[in-house]
Specification:
By secondary structure, the chain is mostly beta strands. The protein has eight helices and 45 strands. The strands form ten sheets. Strands 6, 7, 8, 9, 10, 11, 12, 13, 17 and 18 form a ten-stranded mixed sheet that branches. Strands 41-40-43-44-38-45 form a six-stranded mixed sheet, with no helix packed on it. Strands 35, 36, 37, 39 and 42 form a five-stranded mixed sheet that branches. The relative contact order is 0.10. The structure holds sulfanyl-(tricuprio-$l^{4}-sulfanyl)copper and dinuclear copper ion.
């Protein structure tokens, strides 16, 4: 059939229109992304924090594969700080200085780069209390404590008998425990077995770690589980306090091509753990003494020196030896997130491949347990009947539900990875109330306090995996992206895009008032108990012990004392112990010496840090301050002379007799120095 020119025009126009739609879908014009009832100026004014003003919230975003975490102010999206945890960090020498190296120790030696997913604030009575932040490492399973007075990592514990510590480090409402579960089942204890003996030989573990006592994190007990992949967890609260919930996938127990083979079953499980029951069983001697070596690393709060100890052995509980400790709740379909609503009644699962969002009822779960509504038992674990536990299903929520948070007003918000949107729905009626497209492919989302008993339900942050065309191109690899959404009204409103560091999987946030005034300004020199501290201009020294040379020196605006060192010999190992004796907020110094394999040290006020230096040859090596501390920062330098082995040059340092240029200020320069 011949088509008329007009029909051809129409088809052409339709094609252009379709092309337009497609292009539009991939690359929203700035106007379209401004969305949803908010004018650009409006959105801008809502996130505008004027110069010199503070943000309303601190948010803590996991750094994903960077092994670090970052602190952003909300609503501005300003990056306030990066905190190194499981990776060395040149910005402040973490993992390079002798004082911090031990934090990265494991039973496998130093592991100075890991992959982190989830941040979790400590809680009191189910509400974030601003004491600590916890974060997990996946690859070498570990959990860290960040002290929120210092915004520094102060403790790391390794998790033995585990692999892929992903369901971690979620806390109980009283912060008594935090958990870590094996994402990858493995032979436990490790053994040389054929991979296709998975069903027979591979196991998972759920680990409960004591968390409430800084410096004393320990493995309270582990529960040996069937060899599935344990993905995420959350503690119960309110009525469900005392329970912990973990998602599992690969209940098919596939060991190859999981993409297909672990997606066969209609339902996998949520493991519901009665951890008070577990405590009783452990106390009643029902746990076995089990092997497993793990490192526990801790920064002494007085000396600020990290120490590492290796520990061996855990209490291992088997569900067959502790009746009623674990139940499986069937849940469609390869569930990822498991999130408990603020009331503690609803257990929301994010079944990556499911077409609904299933919500279980804690009340019904208890009744099902009491009535023994079991469909079968797996390795001593009763499987509850789905119908007996389900409270409701959110129908047609979107594609690829992952994670859910709550606003404290009866609404839930679920991230949809595949359909790239945040979906708001109502608890109890399960109706979808609103949708917000996000750019692109959201993983976790976060509402301040949104996984606790008391959310501050004003903002939601979508943590997106793909940025693509949202920012100026920066080559093949782009920053991940966060989007800030106003959830204070009936309809969500998009406010802001901001790039993130690494790959933030999860995040946490609290009102700034909770942390702001407690933030430490400097370490008191009078309380510095580092054995190599130097507290005054004239207190420095140089000493030799065999082939080891220890140099103690101070840094102050704008000099080191001593600043000339002689008598070091080739073959020596030199330890520079530098103390920043400033007693003023934010006045840092740095220390770098030519011939070192790293740039050196960064010294917060009042701190002592040590750099190990092996001189590479005979000669005179300058050292200098790397942190622009004052107008005479460039004058802040010195020399180390290195002579041949056996040389007669005496070991000397020009110890200062008096403070010379205290403060290092140019005449007329403002107190406090310029940085
Ligand atoms: Cu969904 Cu590791 Cu919590 Cu990434 S995880 S998104
Ligand atoms: Cu001290 Cu620059």
């Amino acid at each position: 059939m011949q088509s008329s020119p007009f029909a051809r025009f129409l088809r052409g126009a339709a094609a252009v229109f379709l092309l337009g739609v497609v292009t539009f879908a991939c690359a929203p014009s700035p106007k379209s992304s401004l969305s949803q009832g908010l004018l650009a100026g409006d959105a801008a004014s809502r996130v505008y924090v004027a110069p010199g003003s503070y943000d309303e919230f601190y948010s803590f975003l996991s750094g994903g594969f960077s092994g670090q975490l970052s602190v952003y102010g909300l609503p501005s999206g300003r990056l306030l700080k990066m905190i190194p945890v499981f990776s060395q960090f040149p910005e402040n020498g973490y993992g390079y200085s002798e004082e911090t190296k031990a934090l990265l120790s494991t039973s496998f030696g130093s592991v100075p780069w890991d992959d982190t997913h989830h941040t979790e604030l400590s809680q009191t009575d189910g509400v974030p209390d601003g004491r600590w932040l916890f974060i997990n490492a996946n690859n070498t399973p570990r959990v860290a404590r960040i002290d929120l007075k210092r915004f520094e990592t102060t403790e790391i514990i390794q998790v033995p008998n585990a692999a892929g510590g992903h369901a971690s480090p979620f806390v109980t409402p009283d912060s008594k425990y935090l958990v870590s579960a094996t994402r990858f089942s493995v032979p436990i204890p490790q053994a040389d077995v054929p991979i296709d003996s998975y069903r027979k030989n591979f196991k998972g573990t759920l680990t409960f770690i004591t968390a409430n006592d800084p410096g004393r994190m320990d493995i309270a007990f582990q529960i040996m589980m069937p060899g599935y992949d344990y993905d995420l967890g959350h503690a119960g609260k309110g009525p469900s306090d005392g329970w912990f919930f973990f998602t599992t996938y690969n209940s098919e127990q596939a060991n190859t091509k999981l993409e297909v083979n672990a997606s066969q079953a209609d339902k996998d499980y949520i493991a519901a753990v009665d951890y008070r029951k577990a405590e009783q069983c452990v106390a009643g001697g029902k746990a076995k003494n089990f092997g497993g070596t793990y490192a526990h690393n801790y920064v002494d709060p007085i000396s600020q020196i990290a120490r590492s100890e290796l520990k061996t052995g855990v209490k291992m509980l088997s569900p067959t030896d502790c009746d009623g400790v674990v139940f499986y709740i069937p849940t469609p379909k390869s569930p990822h997130g498991v999130d408990i609503d603020p009331s503690g009644e609803y257990i929301v699962a994010g079944g990556k491949l499911a077409t609904v969002i299933p919500v279980h009822s804690f009340t019904k779960m208890q009744k099902a347990i009491a009535d023994k509504q079991f469909e079968k038992t797996i390795d001593g674990i009763p499987v509850l009947k789905y119908e007996a536990v389900i409270a409701g299903e959110v129908q047609k929520p979107g594609l690829g539900p992952l994670h859910t948070e709550f606003d404290g007003r009866g609404n839930a918000y679920t991230s949809m990875f595949i359909s790239s949107e945040v979906v708001k729905w109502k608890l109890g009626t399960w109706e979808v109330l609103d949708r917000m497209p996000v750019y692109y492919s959201v993983g976790h989302l976060m509402i301040p306090g949104g996984d606790t008993r008391k959310p501050w339900g004003k903002y939601l942050v979508a943590l997106n995996k793909i940025t693509k065309d949202r920012y100026l191109p920066t080559g093949p690899e782009m920053a991940r992206s966060a989007q800030l959404i106003d959830i204070s009204g009936d309809k969500m409103k998009m406010l802001l895009d901001f790039p993130t560091t690494g790959e933030p999987h999860y995040a946490q946030a609290v009102p700034a008032v909770l942390l702001k005034s407690a933030s430490l300004k400097f370490d008191k020199l009078s309380e510095n108990t580092n054995p190599n501290v130097t507290t005054s201009e004239s207190g420095g020294s140089i000493t030799r012990t065999g082939k080891r040379v220890d140099v103690k020196m101070i840094a102050i605006r704008s000099h080191f004392a001593p600043d000339n060192l002689e008598g070091i010999q080739l073959g020596d190992t030199v330890y520079f112990h530098v103390t920043n004796i400033e007693q003023d907020w934010n006045i840092g110094h740095g220390f770098a010496v030519f011939g070192a394999t790293t740039a050196g040290l960064i010294l917060p006020p009042g701190s002592t840090r040590t750099l190990k230096w092996v001189p590479p040859g005979v000669g005179v090596y300058p050292f200098y301050c790397t942190d622009f501390c004052s107008a005479l920062h460039q004058e802040m330098q010195g020399y180390a002379r290195v002579s041949a082995a056996g040389s007669a040059v005496p070991l000397t340092a020009n110890i200062s007799k008096a403070a010379t240029s205290q403060g290092g200020r140019l005449p007329g320069a403002p107190a406090g120095g310029s940085r």
